[in-house]
Amino acid sequence: MRKAGAFILGTGRALPSRVLTNQDLERMVDTSDEWITQRTGIKERRIVGEGESNSRLATTAARRALSRAGVSPEDLDLIIVATLTPDYLMPSVAVLVQQALGARRAGAFDLSATCSGFLYALSIADKFVREDPKRKILVIGSEVLSHKTNWEDRTTCVLFGDGAGAAVVTGSPDGERGVLSTHLHADGSLWHLLTLKGCGSLYPPCDPRIPREDYFIRMQGREVFKQAVRAMEAVAMEALETAGVAPGELDLLIPHQANIRIIEYLRERLELPPEKVFVNIHRYGNTSAASIPIALDEALEEGRLKEGDLVLMVSFGGGFTWASVLMRW
Questions:
Q1: Hey, where are the domains in the chain?
Q2: What percent of the chain has pLDDT over 70?
Q3: Residue 261, C-beta contacts closer than 8 angstroms, at least 6 positions apart
Q4: Of 137, 136, 148, 164, whose CA–CA distance to 55 is shortest?
Q5: Which one is the CATH code of 6-174: 3.30.565.10, 3.30.9.10, 3.40.47.10, 1.10.10.10?
């Protein structure tokens, strides 16, 4: 088996204080708690309020991860923020986090790979620390999807929430613990099935010729579901086969929290018992790039991961992009 690379020293998360429940949504659009729960598994989600932003959530999650890792911001070499909902197009969220933390030595950039963004960013961090194991890299997934959600569209407004998760990584301490492999994929031919067109250079803001709906997330749900289940199963098996590991040897699966039916499909295909799959979609909904790092931080807090455990993280998102990371904890 390949020697391990990126080792996670500490994790952290940040969630807005406002909770939006399914009952709240019943008063906003033509939907019901039963309909949402049966089709998605979501019971509530967190939504930013006044004074809360992507960069502030990212910074809070980062501070918690640094504290748990015992790493000073001045020791960071690089900050990578995975997001599709930055505060601004320029400057990046990563630069705002760098300034807020006082991480003066660190390079900083944003990465856009939708819901797969955190695993894409972790893969990049893995390459950097394999080159120099002493490097310390802050990897963040942070989203404010509520600002890109059409609250009149009952097919999408029930799905998304806001939040941030972070991890501090460095080189493997022993060559055994840490990232064993990463697998990144994309298929741009299916981009039209899940889009957020507005405010790009092709669909500039405040253009009266552009439909209002194009400034929000639009999704062809059934087709996205079909692609997601196939891709997540394939990339999960790719990671396991590359490492020569059977699904039953996994100690924990942390899938992107998009839909409970997708998670259950993947669990059944891998023949894993429920206790080996981490699920928190009922609390937060789909937080895109923040989904996996939030789940990872909660799994650690709940004692679901211990030293030596084999953990597989799998994601799928718009673009389409999909990815997996296999780690020895």
A1: 6-174, 179-328
A2: 100
A3: 39, 40, 41, 225
A4: 164
A5: 3.40.47.10
| pLDDT tens readout for residues 149-167 | 999 998 999 999 999 999 9
Contact 97, 133 (CB under 8 A): no
Count of residues in the chain: 329
Alpha-carbon distances, residue 273 vs 248, 249, 266, 302 (angstroms) = 9, 12, 11, 18
Identify the helix (H) or strand (E) that includes residue 118: helix 117-131
Whether 259 is catalytic is: no
**Catalytic hit among 54, 157, 256, 259:** 256
Give me the catalytic one of 115, 157, 183, 259: 115
- Give yes or no for a contact between 119 and 323, defined as CB atoms under 8 angstroms apart: yes
Q: Does domain 179-328 have CATH number 3.40.47.10?
A: yes
User: Is 22 labeled as catalytic in the residue annotation?
Assistant: no
Catalytic residue from among 22, 54, 259, 286: 286
Is it true that 6-174 and 179-328 share their CATH fold? yes
Determine the Cα–Cα distance for residues 143 and 257; give it in Å rounded to an integer: 14
Q: What angle do CA 158, 223, 254 make, to 5 degrees?
A: 65
* C-alpha to C-alpha distances, 282 to 19, 43, 118, 228, 285, nearest whole angstrom: 12, 5, 20, 19, 6
Q: pLDDT digits over 242-301, tens only?
A: 999 999 999 999 999 999 999 999 999 999 999 999 999 999 999 999 999 999 999 999
pLDDT at 203: 80
